[in-house]
Amino acid sequence: MNRRTVTRSSYAGILAMLALAVGACSSTKSSTDTTAAASAETTVAAATETTGAPTETTIAPAAPATTAAAAATGDKVTLSYFTFSAAPDHLKDLDAIVKAFEAKNPNISIDVKTAAYADYFTALQTQVAGKNAPDTFELNYENSVTYARSGALLDLTDKGIDPARYYPLALKGFNDGGKQYGLPATFSDVVLIYNKTLFDKAGISYPTAAWTWKDEQAAAEKLTDLKAGVYGHLQPVSFFEFYKALAQSGGQFFGADAKAAFNSAEGIEAATWLTSKPGKTMPSLTDIAGTPDFDTALFKSGKLAMWHNGIWQFSGLKDSGVDFDVVVEPGNKVKANAVFMNAAVASATTAHPVEAAKWIAFLTGSQTTVETRLASSWELPAVNDSAAFAAYLAVKPPANRKAVFEALDNVALPPVIERQQEMQDIVGKALESIVSDGVSAKDALDRAVTEVNALLP
């Protein structure tokens, strides 16, 4: 395929979407947006077709778990676990999972440490580099390959993992070179969250899955009331939104020659879409950057009509008093939706590999975890359990919760390279220079393409 969007026929097989999320993942990658129920032997050459990722690596099937995996010694041990997704809204949920695990494994205690997503990977990198890595920790798709190939992760292949518990292609999202370096813990996607009250007051029909960028922008202009501090929409000016907007415009992040190609006409269109809104129909970048959780507070205050954000926001909005619903994000030339996937991993240097494997297996696949995550809308567990997802759909609000799965009909995979964070920073700074410094989209992207290509092997 020419773009990083893969169309799938229906969300009826809710878990098939995880195939989505992982099937195409496995280039220099690890998991976030996935696509297509591909064969278990998909290669990153195929993933490159759908994701635009530049490196080619064969995705080998995960080795079967050994039935005679080593058991814990019975000695009392304490495992550290470092996470970004639990705080601040799901610490009680994580604590419930920890307590259930410790009750079943009285010789193992879990010491939880958390950090905000913005600070997490810097802290983790510092700990790993200082040879003080946590025993177990959370990794997202974009960063997992870097850690796996640096030798920082424990190979879980022969640690008694039950692969049948996970959707097969989801499991393969964290398999590199035939070694299972992580267990898929969650997936989530981005939808358009909207304030029904503001739409009603403005006499505007609610967004539909058929909307395009033009429809969103037209509504945002009518809904914006700067004197009242009300904004029509908010979409972050970021790497993650850019690669998605690029896919929505029919463009590719990496070309057929595996070089960066996002300075195309489609890339310029995507960059212009993102950077033309701040200070007009959405808050300025200065306002957003100057206040922690600015977007969340703005939506909860009833002064933001449309918000491009993830399903992880549902639990926090439930008791906000805002009458909200969700819909699949508007596209441009095509639909393309971002899916994010996280895994639980263990450090290669942990002194307790057996116990670590047991903990992350429980954390990702136990019935306690599944029920806890679904009940609290703490993203979605990556398990092969369609009945559990049926129950998730029944939870309100939002009323249109099925949009979470409809978004999986057209998934845009994030481009992933080993020097991932540097690439993300380059693109992010290029976009900011358009808004803050008046640099043309073409010049900003031309420079960014040159800098990203310099990162490639």
Q: What's the helix and strand layout?
A:
Elements: E1 5-7, H1 16-23, H2 44-51, E2 77-83, H3 91-104, E3 108-114, H4 117-129, E4 136-140, H5 141-149, H6 168-172, E5 175-176, E6 179-180, E7 183-195, H7 196-202, H8 213-223, E8 231-234, H9 239-248, H10 265-275, H11 285-290, H12 294-300, E9 304-310, H13 314-318, E10 324-327, E11 337-346, H14 353-365, H15 367-376, E12 380-381, H16 386-393, H17 403-406, E13 410-412, H18 420-437, H19 441-453
Parallel strand pairs: 2-3, 2-4, 8-9, 11-13
Antiparallel strand pairs: 1-13, 4-11, 5-6, 7-9, 7-10, 7-11, 7-12
Helix pairs in contact: 3-15, 9-10, 14-15, 15-16, 18-19
Question: Within the CATH hierarchy, at the fold level, what is the topology of the domain at 190-335 and 413-453?
Answer: D-Maltodextrin-Binding Protein, domain 2
Quickly count the helices: 19
- Under CATH at level 1, the class of the domain at 190-335 and 413-453 stands as Alpha Beta
**CA-based shape:** globular
CATH architecture of the domain at 190-335 and 413-453: 3-Layer(aba) Sandwich
The count of β-strands is: 13
What average pLDDT do the residues reach? 85
Q: How much of the residues is beta strand, in percent?
A: 15-25%
Poorly predicted regions are: 1-72
Q: For the CA atoms, what is the radius of gyration?
A: 21 Å
Helix content: 25-40%
| Intertermini distance | 24 Å
Structural class, judged by helices and strands? alpha/beta
CATH homologous superfamily label of the domain at 190-335 and 413-453: Periplasmic binding protein-like II
| Biggest sheet architecture | 11 strands, mixed
